Amino acid sequence: MKRIFLQNYKSLRFKFYQNVDDFKVIEEPIRFINKGNFIILKIKKTNLGTWDLIEKLATGLKIYDNEIGYAGLKDKNATTTQYISIPRKYGKDIKKFHHPRIEILETFFHKTKLNIGDLQGNSFEINLHEVEQSDVGQIEKRLKEISKVGMPNFFGYQRFGRDVKENLEKANKIIYGDLKIRDRKLEKMLISAYQSDFFNRWLAKRIELSKENFKLLNGDVMIQLKDEKLFTPSKVNEQLQKDFENQKSVPTGLLSGRHVFRAKYEAREIEQEFDDTYIQEKGLRRPAIVFPKDISVKYDSNTKKCKVRFMLPRGAYATVLIENVANRNLKG
User: Fold this and answer.
1) Minimal CB count within 10 Å: which of 51, 70, 131, 320?
2) Helix, strand, coil in percent for the chain, rounding step 5
3) Which pLDDT does position 301 carry in this prediction?
4) Which of 137, 136, 273 is nearest to 203 (CA)?
5) Strands 38-46 and 79-87: what pairing?
6) What per-residue string of b and e applies to 313-329 under the rule 16 or more CB within 10 Å gives b?
């Protein structure tokens, strides 16, 4: 889908490439207590997705892949550092493990297996190419503005696979019982893409109602950023608006499914257009707006390369932030 932006910027025409040199990601982990029955591996990898990494580790350590825990899925076309957990009993095999694209940087102990979401966020280092010197100030200014007012938390194009339309059609058939897939992992990925498409279309509709800043509605399901507790105020009041502007709480959007809070009142009128009660996967709420942190911009006038660094909360896409800065879709 065509991306919709809060800010009315003019388009910038730099080049963006997702590869091991120009796209680097480092997970910002939860705190590890350094004791327990699990070993945490801090791993640096190149040109390997998280599923590829798990497969290589399972084969190399001779363990089942479902014994391996991870906090987040990382892109294949990048240099990424992420944390993986394995049961402590396999510790002796780690030193024997070698792979040309996998480097174990550090190990820690922890009391539990890592699960999706067990991270604070991700730090990114991205090179933008063919950047005109006159645009560098604009890139920095836009990043700072977005860090204050927030970025619409769209799912990036990576979420949907190469054939978006076909994948969404397959997911719909699975949900309505017209298609069966034996591969449970593939089935879950297709349904996740389907849920994400609803969320993206809902978010685009909400942005159409907003001007420069995201507009809160009566009955929005809000999330407190400090403790991640959900709450649903019946009315938008001055304090709610102030807390949103001060980055204390943000509205959330629906990932349709079972056992999930739905919005109420005015907010629900829009949300119900993008809800599907036939989905049997667990439903979730996703922050509609996220705030980039730790922003820096460096420019090399000889190569016309601009290096941008920033941190995003878990689940947010760096490519979506780059799209906001460029004010155009990177793909599609």
Assistant:
1) 51
2) 35, 25, 40
3) 95
4) 273
5) antiparallel
6) bbbbbbbbbbbbbbebe
pLDDT at 164: 84
Which active-site residues does the annotation give?
Answer: 75
Strand partners, 311: 123, 293
Confidence of residue 272 (pLDDT cuts 50, 70, 90): very high
Q: Which amino acid is at 287?
A: P
Q: Please, is 166 exposed, middle or buried when counting C-beta atoms within 10 Å of its C-beta (0-12, 13-18, 19+)?
A: exposed
E strands, the chain, where?
Answer: 15-16, 23-29, 38-46, 69-70, 79-87, 102-110, 119-129, 151-152, 222-224, 230-231, 249-255, 284-287, 289-290, 293-300, 305-313
Q: How far is CA 295 from CA 127, 203, 292, 324, 327, in A?
A: 14, 25, 7, 15, 18
**Residue-wise pLDDT tens digits, 128-142:** 999 999 999 999 999
